[in-house]
Structure formats: structure tokens, C-alpha cells
Amino acid sequence: MFGPEGPRLRELAVQALSSVEHGYDLLAPKFDHTPFRTPDQVLEAVAEALVPLGPFEDGLDLCCGTGAGVEALTGLCRRSVTGVDFSAGMLDVARHRVRPADGPGVAWVRGDARALPFRAAFDLVVSFGAFGHFLPRELPGLFAQVHSVLRPGGRFAFPVLAPPRPARPAFWALLGFDAVMRVRNALWRPPFVMYYRAFRLTDVLGELGRAGFVVELHALPGFGRRGDGSPRARLVEARRTQPAAGSVNS
Length: 250
Fold this sequence. Notes:
There is one protein chain. With about 250 residues, the protein is of the alpha/beta class. The protein has a single domain (about 40-240), classed as Rossmann fold (3-Layer(aba) Sandwich), CATH 3.40.50. About 35% of the residues lie in helices and about 20% in strands. It has helices at about 10-15, 20-25, 40-50, 70-75, 90-95, 140-150, 170-185, 200-210; strands spanning about 55-60, 75-85, 105-110, 120-125, 150-160, 215-220, 235-240. Helix 4 links the parallel strand 1 and strand 2. It is globular and about 45 Å long. One of its GO terms (molecular function) is methyltransferase activity. Pfam families: Methyltransf_25.
């Protein structure tokens, strides 16, 4: 599962018993050598799907980690790309690994996705693999924050992979992981929020609509289709058209 440059079991155990922020600070130097890093195939498929929706001037990678998504955005945005994450360790790795020679300017901001320090500054926001760190009850606030940092007409985009079926070993692996995390969080503080099965597409689409987005789904063809014909991977494209209900931001 992990290569020779990845974290050892003891390091993962220490991370899992830390807070989310401190855990990722510890994992940051070896994060790119773990399965938790978004595969290049996903990054490339999302970038390809976004090209016809542009052009984009300013982009934001929400919960950017070590910067793989920021790197993808530099090929889509003409003026600036910003990565925001609450782990100082992850941002430090990102600053050293993403240094485009030309193209848009790149900035790194330490911040919480639930309280973003921007207002209507971007026409594209993306996120890769971060939503397991948010509880379902936090999604309305999270999506309201994203809505507030987008300009009218701006897009919030992220990939969603079809969940494995119960007949597949991956289904039981993810179920077991979530069960272990729930037990851990019931017995240990601070909590480490990381659940693979809590981000359900039907619920997410409803929350995006309530936040003021118009949503479209695009199949990512490089991942093929399941036996019932449904895509194995989709791009969620949520477009800001008006302020969210109760929002004072335009």
C-alpha cells in the first residue's frame, strides 16, 4: 500500500491519534508517497473536463494539501492560482514542489475552508479528496463559504467516484475504515475527522442547490462505466448564479 518512501505504521498511528491539522503536519513530508494523494489520472481528467467551461482568470484549490491541484490549475487559469489549507506542514511542502516557471502567479494561504479569508475573488474553485474531513452537518456552511468567494458565474468543481458495490472488497475496506474512525473518535480526543462514506452525492447536490448553485454533472469518460451504465467517475460543476439565501454577499 505504501512505497519505501511512505510513512511507517508507527508514523501513521501517531498521525491518527492527533488532530486533523497536526496529523497532516506530521504526514506532509511523505504525503505524496501515500494512496491519500489524488492520483494524476483524476487531476488530468478534471482539468480536461474544465477546459471547455473556461477561460478562467483566478482559481482556488480548496484544502490544497501538497499542491497537486494547484499545479493542475496553473494550466487552466490565466492570472492567478491560490492554494488554501489549514496544515502549515502541507503548505510548506507545496511551496517547495510547485514552482511554475511561467503562467499565472501562485499564492499559498493558511486558512480554514469553513471561514475563508476571501470575498468574490475567484471564478473557479476546485477541491480534490478533502470532503471526508467535513461532517455532513458542516456542508451547508462549507458550500456557503465557497459561494461567497466566487464571482457571479464562477464555478465550483470537484470529482466524485462511484462508491464500490457490496460485492467488492473495497466496499468492506471503506466500511471498516469508517467504523474504526468512529470508534476512535468516540474514545479519543481530539477527534480526527476522516470518513469515506459520509459524502453522499444525493445529499451533496441538495446542499449545493440550497447554497445558491446551479449544478450539472459531467461523466469523466477515462474511468469507464459500471455494469448498469452509470459513470464510474463524474465531475460536479456547481455554478454561482445568485447570492445564497440569507447571504449579505453579492
